[in-house]
Design brief:
By secondary structure, the protein is α/β, with parallel strands linked by helices. It folds into two domains: about 190 residues, TIM Barrel (Alpha-Beta Barrel), CATH 3.20.20.10; about 130 residues, Beta Barrel (Lyase, Ornithine Decarboxylase, Chain A, domain 1). The chain has ten helices and 20 strands. The structure holds pyridoxal-5'-phosphate. Keywords: Isomerase, Pyridoxal phosphate.
C-alpha cells in the first residue's frame, strides 16, 4: 500500500485556464508554455490535455520539444532558447521545430551549416537576459535572409509584468514594436501570463502564457482564483500521527516552534523530499476537513507538523491539502519566501501525478 502523498492534476482546470488565456489574448493566438515538465505537472500530460485547444506549444529546449513529438503531438513547437549546439539544427528542421535565435553564436551556426529550420528572433527590449539589441535587428535579419533562413517571428520577454504599478512593460513593448515593425508581416510575441492581465497591453500575434495555465496568479500579491484561474495541481497527503502537546513542548528539528496551550499536533506524510518547501514558516496554511490549519516547526524531509487543535475530529488517515483549490499555491509560496513557479516545478518524482478529469480521478 503506497503512502497516499500525491499530486492530483486537474485536466479540466488546465483547459479552463488555457481558454481564459485565449480569451484574454483577444485577436492574438496563445501558445501553451509547457517547459520544465509542464511546470511540474508532466509535459506530455499537459500537452495532451490541451491538444484540442492549443495549436502551438513553447518549450525551453530541444529535449522538451522532442518529448512532445514522442507523445504524438504534431503542433508547432517554439524552442525559446533555441539550440545549444549547431548539430541540433538539422533535427529541429526535420521535426518542424521553430528555433529562437538570441545570440551571435547561434546566428553563426545557421550561416555555417545547411539546416534551415524556421527561426524566431529574440529581441532584448530591456530585460537584458537574452536577445539582440533593437538596433541590431535589421542587420541580423538580413544576415539570416542572405543565408537562406526564413525569419518567421520575433519575440521579447518582460521583466516586470507581474507588477501592476510598473511602467516597464509598456516601455519594453514600445521598444520591441519600433524594432520589429519594419519586419512585417512576421509573427510577433511579447506577452507572458502576467501581460494577459495588464489593461491596454498590446498582444501582437501570439501570446505565451505559462504559469496561468496551471492556475497560479502571475500578478504579485494576487491569487489565481481572483483572476478566474483554477488550480491545476492539488498536492495532497495524509495525517499519519496525532499527539497531544502540553504548553511549552516543542516540535521538530531545531525546536523552532513551541506550544503555548494544550495542543493537538498532527504529522503529515510529506516533506521537502517531496518538494514541499523547507522554508515554509510557522503558520503556513494546510487544508484538513475543510479547515485551514497552521504548519508548526521545521519541515522535515518526509513529514511536517500541523496544529490541529482547532480542527474538529481530525484523525489518522485524514487527507491534507498542501496546495490546490482551497489553499492557493501562491499563498504557500509567499509563506516560503518564493514563487509558485518554484514550488510547482520542485515537486519531486517521489510524488505520483494522478490525473483528474470531470471530478473523477484515475492513476
Ligand atoms: C520567454 C518566455 N516566455 C514565456 C514564459 C511564460 O511565462 P509565465 O509562466 O510567467 O507566463 C516564460 C517563462 O519563464 C519565458 O521564459
Amino acid at each position: 500500500m503506497p503512502r497516499q502523498t500525491l499530486a492530483r492534476i486537474h485536466l479540466d482546470n488546465l483547459r479552463h485556464n488555457f481558454r481564459l488565456a485565449r480569451e484574454r489574448a483577444g485577436s492574438a493566438r496563445a501558445m501553451a508554455v509547457v517547459k520544465a515538465d509542464g511546470y511540474g505537472h508532466g509535459i506530455e500530460r499537459v500537452a495532451r490535455a490541451l491538444a484540442n485547444d492549443a495549436d502551438h506549444y513553447a518549450v525551453a529546449c530541444l529535449e522538451e520539444a522532442q518529448a512532445l513529438r514522442q507523445a504524438g503531438l504534431t503542433q508547432p513547437v517554439l524552442l525559446m532558447q533555441g539550440v545549444h549546439q549547431a548539430s541540433d539544427l538539422p533535427l529541429c528542421e526535420a521535426k518542424g521545430f521553430t528555433v529562437v535565435v538570441h545570440h551571435e553564436h547561434q546566428l553563426a551556426w545557421l550561416e555555417a551549416g545547411d539546416a534551415r529550420p524556421a527561426v524566431w528572433l529574440k529581441v532584448n527590449s530591456g530585460m537584458n537576459r537574452l536577445g539582440f539589441a533593437p538596433g541590431e535587428v535589421r542587420a541580423v535579419c538580413q544576415r539570416l535572409e542572405s543565408a537562406g533562413v526564413t525569419v518567421t517571428g520575433a519575440m521579447t520577454h518582460f521583466a516586470c509584468a507581474d507588477d501592476e504599478l510598473s511602467e516597464r512593460s509598456a516601455e519594453q513593448t514600445a521598444v520591441f514594436d519600433r524594432a520589429t515593425a519594419p519586419l512585417a508581416p512576421i509573427n510577433r510575441s511579447v506577452a507572458n501570463s502576467a501581460a494577459h492581465f495588464r489593461p491596454g497591453q498590446a498582444m501582437f500575434d501570439w501570446t505565451r502564457p505559462g504559469i496561468m495555465l496551471y492556475g497560479s496568479s502571475p500578478m504579485l500579491g494576487r491569487h489565481g482564483p481572483e483572476l478566474g484561474l483554477k488550480a491545476a495541481m492539488t498536492l495532497e497527503s495524509r495525517l499519519i500521527a496525532l499527539r497531544q502537546l502540553s504548553p511549552g513542548e516543542a516540535v521538530g528539528y531545531g525546536e523552532t516552534w513551541r506550544s503555548t496551550r494544550p495542543t493537538v499536533m498532527g504529522m503529515v506524510c510529506i516533506g521537502y523530499g517531496d518538494g514541499y518547501p523547507r522554508h515554509a514558516v510557522n503558520g503556513t496554511p494546510v487544508g484538513i476537513r475543510g479547515v485551514r490549519a497552521p504548519l508548526i516547526g521545521r519541515v522535515s524531509m518526509d513529514m511536517l507538523a500541523v496544529d490541529l487543535t482547532d480542527v474538529d475530529g481530525a484523525s489518522v488517515g485524514d487527507p491534507v491539502e498542501l496546495w490546490g483549490e482551497n489553499i492557493s499555491v501562491d499563498e504557500v509560496a509567499a509563506c516560503a519566501g518564493t514563487i509558485s513557479y518554484e514550488l510547482l516545478t520542485n515537486v519531486t518524482r517521489r510524488v505520483p501525478r494522478v490525473e483528474v478529469q470531470d471530478g473523477d480521478w484515475n492513476g
